[in-house]
Amino acid sequence: MRRQSILTRHLASAALVAVLAAGVGGCQTMSDVTGSIASRSDPMPDDPRRNLEVYGERYRKNPKDVDAAIAYGQALRMTGQRSQACAVLEQATLATPGSKPLLAAYGRALADNGNSQAAFDVLSRAHSPDNPDWRILSVQGTTLDKLNRHEEARRYYASALRLAPDEPSVLSNLGLSYMLTKELPKAEETLRQAYASARADTRIRQNLALVVGLQGRFAEAETIVKADLPADEAAANVAYLRDMLNRKDGPRTASRAAPVVAKDD
């Protein structure tokens, strides 16, 4: 049980969520677990449960408090209450129409909850052509990938990269987009570019390990997946990766991996 708990926590935080039941084109549940594309004026405490109390109370006292609504919505997301996050942020956008940070948070919550088309539409209102936000463009790309509109998704990633050249979170999402269409060498090349950045984090390393493993180079994938983890957690990650790649339909059918969303500045 402990091993399963360690595995679940660290694979989720690393954005290595690969399910073998559907085809590569069947991306259904891409979702990040680490951050928000909307900025806040005050940082959130580290304890999501505490955040629910603090920001939930603030929001209930003043539903027009944009920062409280965004932080409360993120706390709900981080504790797995995705539908509730959507409901809270939808009401907040009605109370404060026109708030682009709030629209960004609502769109992110919709994307997490699997409402891809609605998320794309809301995120389109969260920035403007004369003032584009590369973070939002990247998330819009992930929603298009979920809708199997991969070429369109890559145009959004390209736009994001023009605004934020070599941004590792965008490159990682682009690499996963290539993975979804079975263009594994191109996926690896893009993820290695992301991995080379000084700002690359564990999630990007795990995405690279997944794509390397899908090409049959398990020893190399194992080396990548174990990087910077304590021994027991590294072993759990490797065991999961080995099980995934040793299944009957193996590398051909890894269907889903979660994108990386840049943390707030």
UniProtKB/TrEMBL annotation:
Signal peptide bounds: 1-21
Protein name: Tetratricopeptide repeat protein
TPR repeats: 134-167
Alphabetical UniProt keywords: Repeat, Signal, TPR repeat
SMART domains: TPR
Source organism of this protein record: Bradyrhizobium quebecense
